[in-house]
């Protein structure tokens, strides 16, 4: 399969592992049950900002990348974004705990597991071995309209501010 790029449609088989937020599972120590989140279906009629990080709880991801999306969530929504999601190679339990550790409630930002980097590999060379690379996509009604992978170790083209500038 050819690498996905701007102008391509999201494939029909994009599924992530996910633990939905509930009041009962709102504590960091509480666990939900992972489900398969069919992004192809859920995002077909929505505008989605998806950003990927190499790992939950890592310093760069927790200090430099995720906070920008949390702070800019209202601005992203004001630009017509229906869903903001973050993926990493970590399993759904770790992603859920990372969400809770950052005070995210009511699925304001979806924390999804790209186990085995299955989705990131569809983008081409957008992995760091067994981890997801740092990148951002904007998907509008199933079509990729923005796709940028970080050229180095900094958070530039995949930052919330960079994505906002392209919306």
Describe what you observe in this structure.
This protein has 167 residues and is an alpha/beta fold. The chain has a single domain (15-166), classed as Glutaredoxin (3-Layer(aba) Sandwich), CATH 3.40.30.10. The chain has six helices and nine strands. The strands form three sheets. The chain has a five-stranded mixed sheet with strand order 5-4-3-8-9. It has a two-stranded antiparallel ribbon with strand order 1-2. It has a two-stranded antiparallel sheet with strand order 6-7. Strand 4 (83-88), helix 4 and strand 5 form a beta-alpha-beta unit.
Any key phrases for this structure?
6 helices; Thioredoxin peroxidase; antioxidant; oxidoreductase; globular; thioredoxin peroxidase activity; two-stranded antiparallel sheet; alpha/beta; 25% strand; 167 residues; 5-stranded mixed sheet; Glutaredoxin
Topology record:
Layout: E1 15-18, E2 35-38, H1 39-42, E3 47-52, H2 59-71, H3 73-78, E4 83-88, H4 92-101, E5 110-113, H5 118-122, E6 127-128, E7 131-132, E8 135-140, E9 143-149, H6 160-166
Parallel strand pairs: 3-4, 4-5
Antiparallel strand pairs: 1-2, 3-8, 6-7, 8-9
The dominant shape is globular
Along the chain, the helix and strand elements come as EEHEHHEHEHEEEEH
Q: What name is given to the CATH topology?
A: Glutaredoxin
- Class derived from helix and strand content: alpha/beta
Number of helices, where a helix is a run of at least 4 consecutive DSSP H or I residues: 6
Side-by-side strand order of the widest sheet:
5-4-3-8-9
CATH architecture: 3-Layer(aba) Sandwich
* Poorly predicted runs: none
Structure summary, number of beta strands? 9
GO cellular component, one term: mitochondrion
Pfam families: Redoxin
Domain Thioredoxin: 4-167
Keywords: Antioxidant, Oxidoreductase, Peroxidase, Redox-active center
């Amino acid at each position: 399969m050819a690498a996905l790029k701007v102008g391509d449609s999201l494939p029909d088989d994009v599924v992530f592992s996910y633990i939905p937020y509930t009041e009962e599972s709102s504590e960091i120590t509480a666990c939900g049950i992972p489900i398969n989140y069919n992004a192809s279906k859920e995002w077909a009629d929505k505008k989605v900002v998806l950003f990927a990080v190499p790992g939950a709880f890592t310093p760069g991801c927790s200090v430099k990348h995720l906070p920008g999306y949390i702070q800019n969530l209202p601005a992203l929504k004001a630009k017509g974004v229906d869903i903001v999601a973050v993926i990493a190679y970590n399993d759904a339990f770790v992603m859920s705990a990372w969400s809770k550790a950052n005070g995210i409630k009511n699925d304001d930002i979806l924390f999804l597991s790209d186990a085995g980097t299955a989705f990131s590999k569809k983008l081409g060379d957008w992995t760091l071995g067994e981890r997801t690379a740092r990148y951002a996509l904007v998907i509008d009604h199933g079509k990729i309209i923005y796709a940028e992978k970080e050229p180095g170790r900094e958070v530039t083209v995949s930052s919330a501010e960079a994505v906002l500038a392209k919306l």
